[in-house]
Amino acid sequence: MKLQQLKYLKAIRDNNLNVSAAAQSLFTTQPGVSKQVGLLEKELGVRIFERRGKNLSGVTPIGKRILEQVEYMLTLEQKIKALASAHLDPSTGTLHIYTTHTIARYLLPNSVSYFTRKYPNITFHLRPTLPVQKKGVISKGHSDFSIVAHDVGADNDLIILPAYRWTLGLIVPEKHPLANVRKPTLRQLAEYPILSYEQGSTGRGTQDEAFYKIGIKPNYFMTVMDADVIKRYVQLGFGIGIIATLAARDTENSGLAYTNLNHVFDPSNAWICFSKDILLQNYMYDFLMSFSPHLTKELMESVLLQNSNGKVDKLFEDLELPIY
């Protein structure tokens, strides 16, 4: 058994059993991956993947258990490498940030600018989060942090910390009837076609709950997760937009008007998530605090000492989070 073979197994799983895509993600060839998987199955004496003709069609029951251990072993390999790297040169390393387009555009630039100036030898990678329908799936690599604006749910392998609170704002064309209404009501909003986030997302859930409480069913003309797409279609006159305030208030030279909606919609939480198996380096502590100032190294060290999510939550009970 070779570590490279285990990496092939993980890549195949992560690419929906598409061997060609798995090979491409590892910069190798499809026949080479198929051969190594076959050799590993022969060595172990079990089938890891189910097959239909030349294609993989599923994961066998024993394969699922093997893949769980593969994940653990590859994480351990990364952790060992991180330990050695930190010992040899603490100023080098890698940081992967998985986040949304809105967070990457409006909140991260200051942290990225600060971080890359202070740590020029650490490679910094921004990657998109998974779609909202897969919101329970968070990357758990040895240098991966996810910053998300939706509820993550329980995950015993993750540390999930409150990053900030975010609100919703209204965008309309400058000549729209609501453009000069300082505090529009939910009934006024429901009079127009609404462009907003997809059903199941936190931002959409906040809206649905507020409308439901007063017995109104709004007309969602278009739903999409990208705030900039929503803004574009509002510009074209398809309706009014309800999106994160971070994106909504950026209306310069857009022909749009922004209105705060804090009076009708409650704020939502955003989270920073990372694997419990990460060995936090000094530069990681620094990044966390640059993005969320309340996540000091002292607080983070206390978090890492807790043995339950409930105890972690208590550490944040009296902290006031920034609101955007």
UniProtKB/TrEMBL annotation:
<dbReference type="GO" id="GO:0003700">
    <property type="term" value="F:DNA-binding transcription factor activity"/>
</dbReference>
<dbReference type="GO" id="GO:0019344">
    <property type="term" value="P:cysteine biosynthetic process"/>
</dbReference>
<keyword id="KW-0805">Transcription regulation</keyword>
<dbReference type="InterPro" id="IPR036388">
    <property type="entry name" value="WH-like_DNA-bd_sf"/>
</dbReference>
<protein>
    <submittedName>
        <fullName>Cys regulon transcriptional activator CysB</fullName>
    </submittedName>
</protein>
<dbReference type="Pfam" id="PF00126">
    <property type="entry name" value="HTH_1"/>
</dbReference>
<keyword id="KW-0238">DNA-binding</keyword>
<comment type="similarity">
    <text>Belongs to the LysR transcriptional regulatory family.</text>
</comment>
<dbReference type="InterPro" id="IPR036390">
    <property type="entry name" value="WH_DNA-bd_sf"/>
</dbReference>
<feature type="domain" description="HTH lysR-type">
    <location>
        <begin position="1"/>
        <end position="59"/>
    </location>
</feature>
<keyword id="KW-0804">Transcription</keyword>
<dbReference type="GO" id="GO:0000976">
    <property type="term" value="F:transcription cis-regulatory region binding"/>
</dbReference>
<dbReference type="Pfam" id="PF03466">
    <property type="entry name" value="LysR_substrate"/>
</dbReference>
<dbReference type="InterPro" id="IPR005119">
    <property type="entry name" value="LysR_subst-bd"/>
</dbReference>
<dbReference type="InterPro" id="IPR000847">
    <property type="entry name" value="LysR_HTH_N"/>
</dbReference>
